[in-house]
Write a structure and sequence with these properties.
The chain is an all-alpha fold. It is built from four helices and no strands. The longest helix has 24 residues. It is elongated, with a radius of gyration of 14 Å.
Length: 92
């Protein structure tokens, strides 16, 4: 499987699973923590592939690399969508 496919699948799964897990948590289902945890694991898979891609890029400056990595860690869903849909073509 290609990195782009893995990134797309892991990002979409993480967003979907975390939203479903949050809904289940609101409804007080007993296994909701496990669902949210699985969503976070999927997010970590995305990070595991995206962060090395950003760090090894020669097309962007060091400050922009820092901005992307900081955004992926702290504003994960929004930054991940922007990275995947538009910026990845320019970075790698």
């Amino acid at each position: 499987m290609e990195n782009k496919q893995i990134l797309t699948i892991s990002l979409l799964l993480s967003i979907l699973i975390v939203i479903v897990g949050a809904f289940l948590k609101i409804m007080h289902y007993p296994f909701s923590e496990m669902v949210i945890f699985i969503g976070f694991i999927s997010t970590f898979v995305f990070w595991y592939i995206a962060i090395p891609e950003i760090k090894s890029s020669t097309k962007i400056s060091g400050s922009e690399k820092f901005m992307w990595i900081f955004g992926l860690i702290f504003i994960s869903s929004f930054t991940s969508l922007v990275y995947l849909l538009s910026a990845r073509k320019r970075i790698i």
